[in-house]
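Chain and conformation:
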Amino acid sequence: MTKEEKQNFKKIIDEQIQELSIEIVSIRKALYPERGKGPSDKVAHLNFKLDQSIHIQRYEESTKRLNRLKYAYLKIDTPEYGVCKECEEEISLQRLKLMPESVYCVNCMNELGL
């Protein structure tokens, strides 16, 4: 991978980190409504609890991805970035454009069952 390609991925990762950070703040607000702004009756409370479980799952997934993106950002200037951990071949640029935090190529990911 060229230095220029790595710079482009660095920008992509930085943008995605910013977007995810904003999304996480939004999810936190939905999880914990301000005092007095929560559900007012039993039906609303049940709906809130259902929504809350969805928000918790989104929060956990977003936080995990944010951490993977931050790790990728730290590794981007090293020779490790863009190289599969399993087969040590280069990960395709198309895959990295979709998921810049990828540490496995598609073949190894499928073989490992990830």
Notes: The chain has one domain: 3-112. The first helix runs from residue 3 to 31. DSSP finds four helices and no strands in the chain. Residues 29 and 35 are 12 Å apart (CA to CA).
